[in-house]
């Protein structure tokens, strides 16, 4: 498979991708809500979302990295899950507020 | 108390108060920073491992604290503007952002200059360093989101919302050295119990911290006056205040 990841890490990678995708979507929703209808939306969107996504990428890559080097990935996965729960519960409100500001 | 709160929401009152406070803040900041620098650079004992290089903490640590403090101020001011629709709140948030970004850049810069001789590298993807870098990007994001809207009120509210979302990062920075066993040293001063530092090293640091807080107050007052003037440039009181 891509990146020469051993088969033992597939489960962890899929898990981190599943949790990370959901979290990234919610972060993106906040960013998109804030920049909707702006002229330079693309640049701003990346500037807003990338720093918020950075911890997520670190933990996501860290989980796979840990399992490849033979350490339990549980810690990184728990943190990913915590970020996922945090964004799933709070990001809808933030995104709604952002849309209200942008469109009112 | 409520009348005072209402007064604070009035731009002319804020403009005059900031003007009156500026010299006080500036004088006290100069005294505190001068005391801290002289005591820290000349009289504090050398570190038994790092020699004289540890003295950069007298700039680095207060900058780091202020970077987080300024961000919290910006988010609270933005929230005040967003929730109670107080325009001065947005003016404060707009005035704080570049100051906080400068403190963040100063903390990152002094840290990497110290890291080169001590850790052997300018930069490492350490949790504390990464989260501080994220803070810098958040400041830049807030600063560039505000003028991106044609309607200034809308830009203010969007920037305030982004600042509030980014507050999540502040406790992460503070606890990053506790949660992760990282390269950056653990909390030495702001911890429960006795600081891990002798008083002769600690007092200049606390003096610098006080000085940086006062300096932040002074720069904030100056920037806030400019911000309020610019925002209220069509109001009658501005023409009276600048006497044209």
Number of helices of chain A: 3
**Strand-residue fraction of chain A?**
under 5%
Largest interface: A-B, 22 and 24 residues
Q: What is the SS-derived class of chain B? A: mainly alpha
Whole-number mean pLDDT of chain A: 87
List low-confidence stretches of chain A: none
**Fold-level CATH name of chain B:** Four Helix Bundle (Hemerythrin (Met), subunit A)
CA(first)-CA(last) distance of chain B: 34 Å
Number of domains of chain A: 1
Order of helices and strands of chain B: HHHHHHHHH
Which oligomeric state applies?
A: heterodimer
Strand content of chain B: under 5%
Summarize model confidence as the mean pLDDT of chain B: 88
Poorly predicted runs of chain B are none
Order of helices and strands of chain A: HHH
Q: What can you tell me about this protein's structure?
A:
The complex is a heterodimer of chains A (104) and B (244). Chain A is elongated, with a radius of gyration of 16 Å. Chain A is an all-alpha fold. Chain A has helices spanning 10-35, 41-68, 74-103. Chain A has one domain (10-103). Chain B is mainly alpha-helical and 244 residues long. Chain B contains 9 helices and no strands. Chain B is globular. The two termini of chain B are 34 Å apart. Chains A and B meet through helix 1, helix 2 and helix 3 of A and helix 5 and helix 6 of B.
